[in-house]
Amino acid sequence: MHIREYTHADWDQVWPIIADVIAAADTFAYDPAWPADVAREVWVERPPGRTSVAVDHDGTVLGTAKMGANRPGPGSHVATASFMVAASARGRGVGRALCEDALDWASRQGFAAMQFNAVVETNTAAVALYRRLGFSVIGTVPESFAHPTRGRVGLHVMHRPL
């Protein structure tokens, strides 16, 4: 597996990953009714942000990430990122590789920190991964995510200096 820049030719493999993740409605606050063109507009970052893909040796896209400044202007020194991994590739280190790549990119771009604004507290695999990579939960917005089976759960804000 290697991580590389997303190209428009990747969309045919990226869209099913995004569609599957948002249809589950348990980790992302994205509307499951979004058509592909809306999802692409939201997911694919414009420069100076970046979108990447994790690709298997045979060219199969295993996961994708998007990253950029968390906020414009006075908040632009802090990066943010989001990650989605194909269901068939989960548990194989794809999320970790994408996150490490995003941290490396943010550091090379001169960001001072990385912040995740909305990590669903019941997404325990992601929370544990981010903690292992040096992130801390700096706050939780209670009952701010409507989980399809657990009801209203909190969204963590997670942060890590670079």
Describe the structure.
This protein has 162 residues and is α+β, with helices and mostly antiparallel strands. The protein has a single domain (2-161), classed as Aminopeptidase. 28% of the residues lie in helices and 36% in strands. Strands 1-2-3-4-5-7-6 form a seven-stranded mixed beta sheet. β6 (136-147) and β7 (151-161) form a beta hairpin. The chain is globular, with a radius of gyration of 15 Å. It starts with a strand and ends with a strand. The mean pLDDT is 97.
Concise structural overview:
This protein has 162 residues and is an alpha+beta fold.
CATH architecture: 3-Layer(aba) Sandwich
Strand adjacency order, main sheet? 1-2-3-4-5-7-6
What fraction of residues sit in β-strands?
35-45%
Q: How many β strands by DSSP?
A: 7
CATH topology: Aminopeptidase
Cα distance spanning the termini: 25 Å
Order of helices and strands: EHHEEEHEHEE
CATH superfamily: Gcn5-related N-acetyltransferase (GNAT)
Content-based structural category:
alpha+beta
Contiguous runs where pLDDT drops below 50 for at least 5 residues: none
Query: What is the radius of gyration computed over CA atoms, rounded to a whole number of angstroms?
Result: 15 Å
* Fraction of helical residues: 25-40%
Label this structure with key terms.
162 residues, 36% strand
What is the element layout, followed by pairings?
Layout: E1 2-5, H1 11-24, H2 36-43, E2 50-55, E3 61-69, E4 78-85, H3 94-108, E5 113-120, H4 124-132, E6 136-147, E7 151-161
Parallel strand pairs: 4-5
Antiparallel strand pairs: 1-2, 2-3, 3-4, 5-7, 6-7
